[in-house]
Design brief:
Number of strands: 6
Bound molecules: magnesium ion, zinc ion
Radius of gyration: 16 Å
Distance between the termini: 22 Å
Order of helices and strands: EHEHEHEHEHEH
CATH class: Alpha Beta
Strand order of the largest sheet: 3-2-1-4-5-6
Number of helices: 6
CATH topology: Rossmann fold
Strand content: 15-25%
CATH superfamily: HAD superfamily/HAD-like
Helix content: 25-40%
Number of domains: 1
Largest sheet: 6 strands, parallel
Amino acid sequence: MIRTVIRTVFLDRDGTLNAEVGFVRSPDQLRVLPGALQALRRLCAAGRRVVVVTNQSGIARGLYSEADLARVHGRLHAELGGLVAAFLHCPHHPDGGFGYGGACDCRKPGAGLLHQARELLGVDFAGAALVGDSARDLLMAQGLPIATVYVHSGKPPPQELETLAAAGFTPDHEAADLGAAVDWLLARP
Ligand SMILES: [Mg+2]
Ligand SMILES: [Zn+2]
């Protein structure tokens, strides 16, 4: 039996696809990074499926609502040419409220959003990859057979790389931005 496995690339949102500007409360605050759309086009043309996984504790902090986030993701989806298969988010924060406080398993570096993707979309972790600009983005893949790429397009890299090193985690690759990450991903067998 021939089984076709769609290879999935998990992408962080802020600092990876769009500029890291702190909490994004409305679509007007979105700035898609240069080259991000082109990078997504190349991934999709190569048969990869793109899934965004993002911490959105602003909901638990009462800074914006699920409906506000839906508007932000609606705009981002359009600006990214409709190429993102799914936007998965964690609305929680341990110290938050508004119905979203307390511990959860989907806040990165927890792996809950990856498991959600597996259940919703049938993602096969073997052969999947993950790109992010913060330590906790990459740490969510710890112990899973997912290739990790750290990009320098968001949070200050020295601090994030130090956190990764302290956790004993070495990214499979480092790249300047998503475009360079895709160069590496598509060159892999
Ligand atoms: Mg980020
Ligand atoms: Zn959560």
